[in-house]
Amino acid sequence: MNGEFFSGDLKISRYLAKPSGKTGVLPGMLLCHGFPVALNDARHSASTFPELIDRVANELGWAAMTFTFRGCGSSQGDFSMQGWVDDLRAAIDHLVAEVSPSGVWLVGTNTGASLALCAGADDPRVNGCALLGPHADFDDWAAQPRRFLEHVREVGAIHNPKFPESYDEWSRELRRFRPTDAARRFAPRPLLLLHGDDDESVPTADSRVLAEAHGSADLQIIPGAGHRLRHDPRAIAVLLGWLDRQRSNMPI
Predict the structure, then answer these.
(1) pLDDT of residue 239
(2) Which stretch of DSSP H or E encloses residue 167?
(3) C-alpha count within 13 angstroms, C-beta hemisphere, residue 119
């Protein structure tokens, strides 16, 4: 990471790259990581994302940024669904303030993908979204919030033993954000959905539901690919090609 911004009173770590030697107004891409899965995995969230950010900046000529949500990486704070959405909105504000892009495209993996759609649906600055292995809802977490809270502690995304201050509010937030409803509101802006047909964590049906709700999404199922599409070169090739074509959708 090479900088930070504030989300409320929390410092959020970010990595920002711009193409060398390019002047003038650039399109902006913001990349959102997914929810940590393994024991103490939160500290490593987005650790490989700067490499992809550099590719987008240098190969496509975009201003590109990634960041770690609160509770992850070196960012301050503890996980909550509302908190992550607040961080994403603050990240968009920061990208716009830093580079004054011609438009903003959100890219996300898994949970970060779903929340990108939720934030983008209500932000007219967002021109398009590309989602890798998104959830269509968070009902499985919301159905067993105490078990999920324990899981969040185990992966290291909650550090303060007294957090959350209000368990009831924290658990209600798991139902507040509805990616499928967001897909309807996001239309007709461009939406790319990539999903591995061997995803062991999120079924391909989730992307199909989001595509149907949007109405004109580009849905691509990657044969034999698993949950971590960020590391599948086929998925990244599709993503970079889609981003490159988005230039024609930029406001003049």
Answers:
(1) 97
(2) helix 167-176
(3) 32
Tens-place pLDDT, residues 128-140: 999 999 999 999 9
Chain segment 70-86, per-residue pLDDT in tens: 999 999 999 999 999 99
Residue 192 forms beta bridges with which residues?
Answer: 130, 218
Contact (CB, 8 A) for 155 and 138: no
Averaged pLDDT of the chain = 94
Report residue 248 CA to chain centroid gap. 23
Distance of CA 155 to the CA centre of its chain: 18
CB-based contact 31:108 (threshold 8 Å): yes
Cα separation, 77 vs 63, whole angstroms? 27
Is the Cβ–Cβ distance between 95 and 81 less than 8 Å?
Answer: no
Note if the bond before 233 is cis, omega within 30 degrees: no
Core vs surface per residue 72-99: b (16+ CB within 10 A) or e:
bbebbbbbbbebbbbbbebbbebbeebb
Alpha carbon distances (Å) from 131 to 76, 192, 218: 25, 6, 10
Topology of domain 3-246 in CATH is Rossmann fold (3.40.50)
- The sign of the torsion formed by the CA atoms of 43, 45, 48, 52 equals negative
Find the radius of gyration of the CA atoms of the chain. Answer: 17
Predicted TM-score (pTM) of the model is 0.95
CA distance 190 to 146: 37
| Phi/psi of residue 220, nearest 5 degrees | -130, 120
CB 108 within 8 A of CB 66: no
